[in-house]
Write a structure and sequence with these properties.
Blueprint lengths: L2 H21 L10 H7 L2 H7 L4 H13 L9 E2 L8 H13 L10 H18 L18 E5 L2 H16 L3 H4 L5 E5 L5 H9 L7 E3 L10 H13 L3 E8 L11 H10 L4 E4 L24 E5 L11 E5 L2 H5 L32 H12 L1 H24 L4 E2 L7 E5 L4 H14 L3 E7 L2 E7 L7 H17 L2
Parallel strand pairs: 1-11, 3-4, 3-5, 5-6, 6-7
Antiparallel strand pairs: 2-8, 7-8, 9-10, 10-12, 11-12
The protein binds pyridoxal-5'-phosphate.
């Protein structure tokens, strides 16, 4: 058994997989029944007997990759998960083997140094003051801070834990009081509601922000709600705004929302898990106008930054809020020591935390931030062109003008018909779409993630959809 030989086999197989995917030479997805697939992959037998190395590994990988969903495929238009820049996969491999849990500096100095500088890079994009280098937790003057987490859901939880600590410092020891509430649009990602549950607020204390028909927060009505809540003796722990929403990719108007929050001393959390990558593009940055007035921002690398999962950033304007979010004793980790670096552990839910920054770094270092900015801008421009093309197709209705790389549309007929069309598209395998509820109806949903997708693929999708529509009443 040789690591080098096996890794070479894996890289060769992945190289073919990538080339076939980008060329659309195999289906975008190939969903086989679980039991048959587990059998074909010999999962139980290999667990019991071992031996999956050398030529056997090569043959097995071919079977495994035949079942893998191809995110680089031009017909992959489903969920907002990165079509990975191959350099990021190299970073992931290095992280996998070194397995440096860098949340304490001594367990991964290189990964920690990379994360520190990447957090500063992201703080700069938001418009916040970076952390001092060399690191100094007690530096005079406020600066931003951040940490990379295993996913946007955990990032939202971390940011909201910091908000809770600020709004009610006693909650950590005494538990939350009944007056604490969180305000978020109904369209907020479900991880926000989960965070409210985990933080002990209770579902009843997660209040809907007033929104327009497209699900965007209406700042004037939000201000009135915040005043009403204050009058009722409620303490608003945070307002959550979407940059952009998961379902249809629309951005909440951050500046007036932030002004309403600031005037009342209320924490504004911006969930930019998907859409904060627009900050890289001069043409798109305006979609997050006012973001620098927020208190916390979440920004995922494993969505529009082409980084392997998982790699999400929690960023705060004032480092003291994140450094004060958690209070734990762990004598084997937290103790006085000569510290040449920086421990991220006090800022993170995770104890063992992978070198997430290495994956994002290898993408950025290979391509440069300009290439990522172009990628985000090109996927957004294609979404706009796709929406315009779809709107010209007889009978097709487009949900709203896209503001990101997401387009929602529907064909004539019931919600059930949209779902049946999607089911048949997935069986066909050349195009893989998601679907969502919006304005009370079900829509087909495109999230344009692959760098290989072009307008011709939208035309091809329409050809397939027309044929399927003729079969589905
Ligand atoms: C706006 C938003 N926030 C948070 C998340 C959750 O991120 P993750 O899937 O990395 O946990 C998503 C996922 O799609 C999202 O769209």
């Amino acid at each position: 058994m040789s690591f080098e030989a096996d890794a070479r086999l894996a890289v060769e197989a992945l190289d073919r997989f990538l080339a076939d995917s980008l060329a659309g030479a195999a289906p975008a997805l190939n969903q086989r029944p679980l039991a048959a697939l587990a059998e074909e992959l010999e999962v139980a037998r290999l667990v019991a007997e071992g031996g999956l190395t050398g030529p056997r590994l090569g043959a097995w990988l071919t079977r495994y990759l035949a079942s893998a969903t191809r995110l680089h495929h031009p017909g992959y238009l489903a969920h907002q998960v990165a079509a990975v820049e191959p350099a990021g996969a190299v970073g992931a491999l290095v992280d996998a083997l070194t397995n440096n849990p860098m949340a304490i500096y001594e367990m991964g100095p290189g990964a920690a140094a990379i994360e520190f500088v990447l957090v500063n890079w992201m703080l700069g994009k938001v418009g916040w003051t970076p952390q001092p280098l060399p690191p100094d937790r007690a530096a005079p003057g406020a600066c931003g801070a951040g940490v990379l987490t295993h996913g946007g859901s955990l990032a939202n939880l971390t940011a909201l834990a910091a908000a809770r600590s600020k709004a009610d410092p006693a909650a950590w020891r005494d538990g939350v009081k009944g007056d604490l509430v969180l305000v978020a649009p109904a369209a907020a990602h479900y991880s926000v509601a989960r965070a409210a549950g985990i933080l002990g607020l209770g579902e009843r204390n997660l209040l809907e922000a007033p929104c327009d028909a497209d699900g965007r927060i209406v700042p004037r009505e939000l201000a009135a709600l915040l005043d009403r809540l204050a009058g009722e003796g409620k303490k608003v722990m945070a307002v959550v705004a979407a940059s952009c929403s998961t379902a249809v990719g629309l951005y909440d108007p951050l500046r007036p929302i932030a002004e309403a929050c600031r005037a009342r001393g209320i924490w504004l959390h911006v969930d930019g898990a998907h859409g904060a990558s627009a900050l890289l593009s001069p043409a798109l940055r305006g979609r997050l106008d006012g973001v620098e007035l927020a208190d916390s921002v979440v920004w995922d690398g494993h969505k529009l930054l082409r980084t392997p999962g998982l790699c999400a950033a929690v960023l705060v304007r004032d480092h003291r809020t994140l450094d004060g979010a958690f209070h734990q004793e762990a004598s084997y980790l937290f103790h006085a020591k000569d510290e040449p670096g920086f421990d991220f552990m006090p800022r993170a839910v995770e104890c063992t935390k992978a070198g997430l920054g290495l994956k994002l770094f290898t993408v950025l270092a290979a391509r440069g931030e300009g290439a990522l900015a172009e990628y985000v801008a090109s996927r957004t421009a294609l979404a706009e062109a796709a929406a315009a093309r779809l709107a010209r197709e007889p009978g097709v209705e487009v949900a709203c003008a896209p503001e990101s790389n997401i387009v929602c549309f529907r064909l004539p007929g019931s919600d059930a018909r949209q779902l049946e069309l999607r089911r048949r598209l997935l069986l066909d395998g050349r195009h893989y779409l998601s679907s969502t509820a919006f304005r009370g109806r079900r829509w087909l949903r495109l999230a344009i993630m692959s760098p290989a997708t072009g307008l011709g693929d939208i035309e091809a999708l329409l050809v397939t959809l027309r044929a399927l529509a003729a079969e589905v009443a």
